[in-house]
Specification:
By secondary structure, this protein is mostly helical. The protein has one domain. Helix content is about 80%, strand content about 0%. The chain contains three helices and no strands. Helix 1 packs parallel to helix 3.
Length: about 90
């Protein structure tokens, strides 16, 4: 019984680590998209709104260390920021 519990715990830790790596990679990709879209747009109001979303994403990313579901929120905020800057940007 105890071996099974330790195996489950190891599997849970491995899954958490894999999810963390995945979300970190997706966040990095969204940051690249944001940077490219920010450089292409000249709409100052859209830039201001996108910057606010980018700051919110940074806060969600920081909180993801304690609450893993916040990483998904960070990704969503970054996607919205990119969309705000360039609605036709490729995903």
């Amino acid at each position: 019984m105890e071996r099974t519990q330790s195996e489950r715990e190891a599997a849970r830790v491995a899954k958490h680590a894999a999810e963390s790596r995945h979300y970190a990679a997706v966040i990095a990709r969204q940051r690249e998209r944001y940077s490219a879209a920010y450089g292409r747009t000249h709409d100052m109001e859209a830039r201001e709104a996108a910057r606010a979303m980018f700051v919110a994403a940074a806060i969600f990313e920081r909180d993801a260390n304690r609450i893993p579901s916040r990483a998904k929120k960070a990704i969503d905020a970054l996607k919205l920021a990119v969309f705000m800057l360039d609605p036709k940007a490729p995903a």
